[in-house]
Amino acid sequence: MTALGAPGFPEASVRARARRGTAEVFPDPAAYGTRLFGPGGTADGTGIGHGSGDALDRARIVPPVFMPERLEKLIDLAREPEFTDVDLTTRTGGFAARLPLYLSAFGSTRAGSGDLAVHASRQAARLGIPMVIGENMVPVHGYRRAGDATRSALLTRIEAYLDAAPDGTGGIVVQQSTEDADSEVWNLLYSDPATRPLLDTGRLAFELKTGQGAKPGLGGMTVVGRAEAERLAHRFTVREVFGPDGEHRLRCATPGTFTDEILRQQLRFMRNNFPKARTWVKFHPGRDIAHAARTAWDAGADAVTVDGAEGGTGWAPGVFLDQVGLPLGECLRRVGPPAGCLLAGGGMWEGGRVLRALALGATAAGLGRAALLAVDEDPEHGLERLVESIALELRLLVSALGKYAVAALGPEDLWWPEGHPYGSRPGHTTGPPEPAGPDRAGATP
């Protein structure tokens, strides 16, 4: 029996570390594949958790009294406008999309690369929204060309999306990390007849991943068994952080090294070597996110994805989930009016948070954990119903603001009780919104 107590201090967490050492840096490995991890405070119930502190959720959506855009719509329709008149179509990273949403990357984790991901792919296609396929799919699961007896997890998801996608809408985005580059993932896809329909219709993109919201500055991580750890050891770093006698091992990917010049060179390489594919870049919520985004747009990126600290579906150390990286709202504040297509991910599951991200310059918002949970609830239509509910909320909210297209949203539509300075930085006013950018609704590609 212990003699010491420490009221108000995370005593249980300290004692757990004293017992289990490095294993306590991560969530319980027994939960791998059945839990989706993100920020949320400590696990010992003390309430001493940092959380993300995202101001985005504290903002109020504030309709004006006078609505000149509603008058314009009334004249155009020759009747009073309704929320059903709100246009949610947009161009997302060069793709035509029915809604300002996209399916976020799941990667090679057990939850994100199995049957749930295939069901999510099929439903995202029917919804007409782009789908991002995460890193390390090929290094972990392998690659098979069309016609082979065994289909890879990557090609299975692509096939499911293609079979259900309407003509002319949506698109598939494939990430590549350091280990993916060693496996020549983009080269394989670009030359594969299975992806020819995507290239011919301009619906394939490659996304250079520099980081992720769940663990800024780190590469991908998963939990594997002893046998799989031995199989993957030549491609990944494998560590016994859960104890040498345990069954579980930690598989780590390298994050890659980037400077502004390296990023420009990488984007130039992508555009030159894969001219028929769109070029996307994903950043973690770093303190220099504004400079990174500008560098990518200046280098010709079709889309810049900002993954806020609220992001997550995969495996990450608890200290990263709760204490590392900027909240999404702060990322959007620092970026300011975007110079191109800006995509925002992290904690998206309902229309209010999506709308606030759109009002701060995002073209579309990503669904990650919410999408997997929805598909887990109903593999056939769960994601579709979730997205339909978000779309209804968006139409109601945009209409209440006296606007009838998502591209018309701007920072003037939001208010923070604590006086958050979103409108105080140079060039980011609270007046009328900037004209629609090249990838906002109603614009040309």
Instruction: Outline the low-pLDDT stretches.
Output: 41-52, 423-438, 441-445
Computed Rg: 22 Å
Instruction: Please state the overall shape, judged from the principal axes of the Cα atoms.
Output: globular
How much of the sequence lies in strands comes to 5-15%
- Strand order, biggest sheet? 4-14-13-12-11-7-6-5
Q: Please give the count of helices.
A: 16
State the share of residues found in helices, binned by percent: 25-40%
The number of distinct β-strands equals: 15
What is shown here, in short?
By secondary structure, this protein is an alpha/beta fold. It has helices at residues 11-20, 68-77, 115-127, 137-141, 153-164, 178-182, 185-190, 196-200, 226-232, 260-273, 289-298, 318-323, 328-335, 351-359, 369-377, 382-400, and strands at 60-61, 90-92, 95-97, 101-103, 131-133, 172-176, 204-209, 221-225, 237-239, 248-252, 278-283, 303-307, 342-345, 364-367, 414-415. The protein has 16 helices and 15 strands.
Please give a structural write-up:
With 445 residues, this protein is α/β, with parallel strands linked by helices. The protein has 16 helices and 15 strands. An 8-stranded parallel beta sheet has the order 4-14-13-12-11-7-6-5. A 3-stranded antiparallel beta sheet has the order 8-10-9, with helices on one face. The termini are far apart. 48% of the residues are buried. The C terminus is likely disordered.
Q: What are its keywords?
A:
445 residues; alpha/beta; 8-stranded parallel beta sheet; disordered C terminus
Give me the secondary-structure topology.
Blueprint: H1 11-20, E1 60-61, H2 68-77, E2 90-92, E3 95-97, E4 101-103, H3 115-127, E5 131-133, H4 137-141, H5 153-164, E6 172-176, H6 178-182, H7 185-190, H8 196-200, E7 204-209, E8 221-225, H9 226-232, E9 237-239, E10 248-252, H10 260-273, E11 278-283, H11 289-298, E12 303-307, H12 318-323, H13 328-335, E13 342-345, H14 351-359, E14 364-367, H15 369-377, H16 382-400, E15 414-415
Parallel strand pairs: 4-14, 5-6, 6-7, 7-11, 11-12, 12-13, 13-14
Antiparallel strand pairs: 1-15, 2-3, 8-10, 9-10
